[in-house]
Design brief:
Elements (H helix, E strand, L loop, with lengths): L11 H7 L4 H8 L5 E9 H13 L3 E3 L11 E8 L1 H11 L6 H11 L8 E7 L13 H14 L3 E5 L12 H17 L7 E5 L3 H9 L4 E4 L6 H10 L2 E5 L17 H19 L6 E4 L8 H9 L10 E4 L5 H6 L8 H13 L4 E4 L2 H16 L4
Parallel strand pairs: 4-5, 4-11, 5-6, 6-7, 7-8, 8-9, 9-10, 10-11
Antiparallel strand pairs: 1-3, 2-3
Length: about 375
């Protein structure tokens, strides 16, 4: 008799089916095979005591500081843990409780109903001379040649932009941005490349976004995160998806001492606000894509925290995009010029996929396609 450890909670149903368990048993037992952890910040002491008792009664647990029982403070941080089944029961129970537990229950409920999306690769084409990675800079015909190459290498989406957003970069006028992009957009339409991949316009200029959407682009990639509602209206009118990215400040100021009270919660609050704004325009959550904005107004520590908690942002029900391709955070961990940061890029992107991201924005399509295929083969392989 031998034993080995299983460390694939996403494959729990597959494991039980391989054992030829009863169908109803698969549904019940799979919910017992995964423990979820949630940090709750600044919880009123009354709520902590009620939640502690209710969690214990269901077989779950709430870890709290020793002072909670004696109410020595008014608010505490805590860690809630339990299986999806236990926490589902807890959600229903807390909806009738005071001290803000009803609101907490609704937030917890959003984490228990996540959806999975097929992984997609987004190739990057920059029609400018100052993007931080020289290998992504193209003009007119060379841009179209690069697009064809990315499609052949397996890109699902091509993200085309005419203005650099690297730290310290300066904005350009709409006329100049259009001058850079119109020839590329027109060639994409003329060569019917929309039949081979989806195209995203990386811009926050209404005139540029409108031109791209009029000519077949179907995604708006907005680094300002819907600061200008006109962009959302354009996306809605053309049936386009919308990427809401978080950025603290502007490209000119974003890396000047970025600060957060708690980067995960602050970015979460930003997404909640912008999703509400998008929904008022008429965009559904299936049309909204979230990007935490690695390197956009974040220190290395902020970036690592966001990557570690990438799965957190799936609770909105939107797809999550990761874009850390060759960025300076890799250099800060292991010094290397931008041309030598592909290994670090792959490490970040594969780990982000494992933690819930489904769209990978990158410069190296071929290498990402191979890495993702190997990663998925491991995840989908037999367990027994």
């Amino acid at each position: 008799m031998k034993i080995y450890r299983i460390d694939t909670p996403l494959e729990k149903k597959k494991l039980l089916k391989q054992l030829e368990c009863d169908k109803s048993g698969v549904a019940i037992m799979s919910k017992k095979m995964e423990t979820l952890l949630f940090v709750i910040k600044d919880m009123p002491v009354g709520a902590a005591n009620i939640l502690k008792q209710d969690a214990l009664a269901l077989g779950a647990e709430l870890a709290v500081p020793t002072g909670v029982v004696t109410c020595s403070q008014t608010h505490y941080d805590a860690v809630l843990m339990g299986t999806p089944r236990q926490l589902g029961y807890l959600v229903r129970k807390e909806k009738a409780q005071p001290f803000g537990l009803k609101k907490l229950a609704k937030e917890l409920e959003s984490f228990l109903h996540e959806s999975r999306h097929m992984t997609k690769i987004m190739g990057v084409v920059n029609a400018n001379d100052d993007s931080f990675y020289p290998g992504s800079r193209y003009k007119e015909r060379t841009a179209v040649e690069a697009i064809w190459k990315m499609i052949e290498e397996g890109a699902d989406i091509i993200d085309v932009g005419g203005v650099s957003s690297r730290p310290g970069s300066e904005p350009v006028g709409a006329d100049e941005e259009l001058k850079r992009l119109v020839p590329i957009v027109d060639t994409i339409r003329r060569e019917k490349l929309f039949e081979r991949a989806r195209f995203s316009i990386d811009s926050y200029t209404p005139e540029v976004v409108a031109y791209a959407l009029e000519n077949g682009f179907s995604i708006v990639n907005d680094i300002t995160g819907l600061r200008d509602e006109r962009l959302g209206v354009l996306a809605k009118s053309y049936g386009a998806a919308y990427i809401v990215m978080h950025m603290q400040g502007t490209p000119q100021t974003m890396q000047k001492n970025p600060h957060y009270d708690h980067v995960v919660l602050d970015v979460d609050r930003f997404f909640m606000e912008r999703i509400e704004r998008a929904e008022k325009i008429g965009l559904g959550r299936e049309e909204i894509i979230l990007d935490v904005g690695i390197g956009f107004g974040k220190t290395l520590e902020h970036n690592l925290m966001l990557l570690k908690h990438m799965k957190h942002f799936t609770h909105f029900g939107c797809e999550v995009l990761i874009g850390a391709s060759r960025k300076s955070m890799i250099h800060k961990i292991d010094p290397a010029p931008v041309e030598e940061r592909l290994p670090g890029t792959l490490a970040i992107h594969l780990e982000s996929i494992r933690r819930g991201a489904s769209i990978v924005r990158c410069h190296d399509v071929k290498e990402h396609r191979q890495a993702i295929r190997v990663f998925e083969a491991i995840e989908e392989g037999e367990i027994l």
